[in-house]
Amino acid sequence: MTMDVTIYHNPDCGTSRNTLAMIRNAGIEPTVIEYLKTPPARDRLLRMIADAGLTVRQAIREKGTPYAELGLDNPALTDDQLLDAMLKDPILINRPFVITPLGTRLARPSEVVLDILPDTHKGPFAKEDGEQVLDAEGKRLV
């Protein structure tokens, strides 16, 4: 299937790997951007966050990042200050963001990506942990 899909991916993240595998299971080869190596531009990041229906604060990753050490939990910080931190240290950008013509999502949990993919899945799909997401006909279970 030809569909313009972009995933902001971290290959060390199981959720990101599962999301990428679900996109490929739909017969789509996405543009994969390893955002730790190539972070999005500020305007692109802001647009992805808005298009996904999130606030900037909701798009920040806390676990496994310098979030607490940087004091990013301070509610007085503005969106601009939070974006500055995310762009300076891209590990603070939650992942994976996926952009398709059907919408933009922060795919957490990974099966959220199914909301913005066509129904072209090829058979069953299980996440790395064994959780079955699609049945033998490629229909969503969760």
TrEMBL record:
It catalyses: [glutaredoxin]-dithiol + arsenate + glutathione + H(+) = glutathionyl-S-S-[glutaredoxin] + arsenite + H2O. Belongs to the ArsC family. It holds the Pfam family ArsC. It comes from the Bacteria. It comes from Xaviernesmea oryzae. Keywords: Arsenical resistance, Oxidoreductase. This is Arsenate reductase. InterPro entries: Arsenate_reductase, Arsenate_reductase-like, Thioredoxin-like_sf. GO terms for molecular function: arsenate reductase (glutaredoxin) activity. Its EC number is 1.20.4.1. GO terms for biological process: response to arsenic-containing substance. It is an enzyme of class 1 (oxidoreductase).
